[in-house]
Write a structure and sequence with these properties.
By secondary structure, the chain is of the alpha+beta class. It is 31% helix and 25% strand. The two termini are 15 Å apart.
C-alpha cells in the first residue's frame, strides 16, 4: 500500500472540510475520519460519525 505524505493528508483534510462546509454551513465539525481507497483513487470520509455516498473526494 502506498503511503501518503503529511502534506497530502493536510491538503485532503482541507478539501474535505471545504466540501462539507459548502453544504453544511452552520454545522460544527467535531471529528472526521478519512478512508483512503487507492484502488478507486478516492477518499471517503465521515463527519461527526455520519457518512454518505456523497462524502467522497477524488484523489
Amino acid at each position: 500500500m502506498k503511503k501518503l505524505s503529511v502534506s497530502t493528508v493536510v491538503i485532503l483534510t482541507h478539501r474535505i472540510i471545504k466540501s462539507y462546509k459548502s453544504v453544511h454551513k452552520r454545522k460544527v465539525v467535531n471529528e472526521f475520519v478519512i478512508y483512503v481507497k487507492p484502488e478507486e483513487n478516492a477518499a471517503y470520509y465521515t463527519i461527526n460519525g455520519e457518512g454518505s455516498d456523497e462524502y467522497k473526494i477524488d484523489l
